[in-house]
Amino acid sequence: MIKRSQLTQTHTIAALVENKAGVLARVAGLFARRGFNIESLAVAPTDERFSRITIVVDAESAPLDQIKKQLDKLIDVVDITELSIEDSALREMVLVRLELDDEAKVADVEALVEGFSGSVIRVRGAHMMLSLSSRPDDLDRFLDKLQPYGITALQRTGAIAIPGI
Amino acid sequence: MQMDGGTALLKALEFEGVEVVFGYPGGAIMPVYDSMVGGAGPRHVLVRHEQGAGHMASGYAHATGKPGVVMVTSGPAATNIVTPLADAYLDSVPIVAITGQVPYGLIGTDAFQETDTTGITMSITKHNYLVSDPNDIPQVVHEAFHIATHGRPGPVLIDLPKNITDARNPQSAMTWADPIAVDLPGFKPVLDGKPEDITAAVELMLAAKRPVLYAGGGILKARGADELRALAEKLNIPVVTTLMARGAMPDSHELNLGMPGMHGNYTAVMAMQEADLLIAMGSRFDDRVTGRLDSFAPDAKVVHVDIDPAELGKIRTPDVAIRGDAKRVMGQMLEEIGGSAPADHQAWRSTLSGWQENYPLAYEDAEPGAKLKPQMVLERLHALSPEDTIVASGVGQHQMWASQYWKFEKPYTWLNSGGLGTMGYSIPAAIGAKAGMPDQTVWAVDGDGCFQMTCQELITAAVEGIPIKVALLNNTYLGMVRQWQEMFYDNRLSEVDLSGPVPDYIKMSEAMGCVAIRVEDPDEVDAAIERANGINDRPVVIEFLTEPGENVYPMVPGGKSNSDVVVPPFQQKETAK
Question: Which of B122, B126, B310 sits opposite A69 (nearest CB)?
Fold first, then answer.
């Protein structure tokens, strides 16, 4: 399984952008044409005017300074902050679907989910749907533990983050 | 005031002070053209190919300092201006492009002449807009001009769906409101350098023993030629003027070493190479200037001034980075220097003059009976034309010779496609410049390859009464490609022969409404130029038959260190002695 949270080799950037048509295409297009590799990208409006984008970018692909400056050239990008893993609030969510080989194992999984403070969304026979919202490295551990139970589908959101207080 | 979006667009252009629009009508932009009937809106110059309109807007902008405007329809017209937009983006030229678009409700349906214009141009414009509400037109146009002309200038595109401009469509109804001050929280150009950075830079500048002021196009964009000269004189610092900065410092000035780079003159190239301090002012360490980067100016500390912070440290890590407008920052530097005197540059100046003496920009005169030397033609063209003549060049050997052998004394007299290297730039750019500066003589210096790409705009020049002059240096080759094939591909010439026998450039030019003169004999050069300079009621083309095998020197071979600059063969022999 690909671990998405090799946080030491990535930069996490929070960009406040004007919530205008095409702004996501501008940001994504910039990363593509400048050769910056995106690990994950999450975006949603914060109010009527602005959206916040959290981008996790491969630190090997370009110097952080250039990434920030090139992003800042986009007219719709208002502010860019690099977020430190230690200080900022950084979360990711994962949805997982399992197909257990034995219905009796549902209780084991439920215990595991509780240990991570995740939630069981639905159980139908040997099929389970789970979610967990936590730090990306927690999600990695969670998925490692679930691996033997038979993951049939999963979706991670990519990290979202805001600067620390 | 109630009106339709098409009328509002023309009103908005007038509100921004636009005097001329270079354009071409078509389906999706037709309502705007309909609103022009009766003379509403700025002057419209009808081009013969949309690419020409884009370069005209660019030439107009560079020559006048005002933003150029190009207006075309959707689809193929929009894609035809992709090249001039990319050109203007790389050379930081403020233009505003208006494109028609299919009606908003049809976007995404592969409608007739539909292209995703904002998507296609996203990476080659500073910003672009797709307008959905005609009420937004005044403010969007105002923002577009603001963005194009503030900070690092560049092209901005506005895509206008037909339904919002068509007076016959109720969706085009709008209420005009004068635009208000722009509110762009993500666009706040910084003009003044930080005082502590100015101090640090000046400290280096005063202490340097072998300084070079590496002057780039940003100085012209900032209208800072006076400050450049003052700064150079105050610190007695020699200046190199990049291809984009020709004219920023008079070529006759003793501190001006001329153009650096791949075809720069020896002294300018070596001065950068041996410098202990480079003051990069509105320049961007382009690969055509630096040559092989890891051996470029190895001993130099760098002060880098640019209005675009992304240029600072992009290629070469500066010792002092200053984000700011070149004119303002040079003003701050002059103030900071005050009465301080620079270090002694005597040894440096004598090194430089030694190079200038041994390796001047030079060519060998043509043998009797041989074809014309292009360098000679350009020297005569310069000598016989008014001092404020504007020269627009195409791309290739003739471009380099024009930059080398025209002696620029004033800013904004040199137009060329530096970053993108767009063949065919010169004729339309010259037309744009002449439209904006009708009292100045405008020469397009073109090659036979370039001429065949955009010469149809001579029809525009003839019909619209924009009498440019073209010096067509016909060497019957794609000369720069031929030179590379000769020097780096063992003279295996591949697809570079343009010897024809067609076209007949004289008949072709005459058919387009120009006076056309062919010059083969060196003794006819002056008379032809003088005749051309005396014609002001129509465009003129002089075809000069030039030496096919002539190469541009000096040359830093691609990928090589600037220290490996190759001087012309006859100077190499002199060195060997």
Answer: B310
- Give the CA-trace dihedral at B341, B347, B348, B351, to 10 degrees: 160
CATH 2.60.40.420 fits A7-83, yes or no: no
pLDDT tens sequence for chain B (577 residues): 999 999 999 999 999 999 999 999 999 999 999 999 999 999 999 999 999 999 999 999 999 999 999 999 999 999 999 999 999 999 999 999 999 999 999 999 999 999 999 999 999 999 999 999 999 999 999 999 999 999 999 999 999 999 999 999 999 999 999 999 999 999 999 999 999 999 999 999 999 999 999 999 999 999 999 999 999 999 999 999 999 999 999 999 999 999 999 999 999 999 999 999 999 999 999 999 999 999 999 999 999 999 999 999 999 999 999 999 999 999 999 999 999 999 999 999 999 999 999 999 999 999 999 999 999 999 999 999 999 999 999 999 999 999 999 999 999 999 999 999 999 999 999 999 999 999 999 999 999 999 999 999 999 999 999 999 999 999 999 999 999 999 999 999 999 999 999 999 999 999 999 999 999 999 999 999 999 999 999 999 999 999 999 999 999 998 999 999 999 999 986 554 3
Catalytic residue among B480, B508, B512, B555: B480
The reply to whether residue B122 touches residue A66, judged by beta carbons under 8 angstroms, is: no
Is the CB of B186 less than 8 angstroms away from the CB of A65? no
Q: In the CATH hierarchy, which fold is given to the domain comprising B2-175?
A: Rossmann fold (3.40.50)
Q: From the CB of residue B133, how many other CB atoms can be counted at a distance below 10 Å? A: 12
- Contact (Cβ atoms closer than 8 angstroms) between residue B52 and residue B428: yes
Fill in the DSSP letter of residue A105: G
Question: What residues does each domain of chain A span?
Answer: 7-83, 89-162
Q: Does A108 touch chain B (CB under 8 A)?
A: no
CATH code 3.40.50.970 for B374-545: yes
3-state DSSP assignment of residue B386: coil
Distance between CA B316 and CA B313 in Å, rounded? 5
What ipTM, to 2 d.p.? 0.90
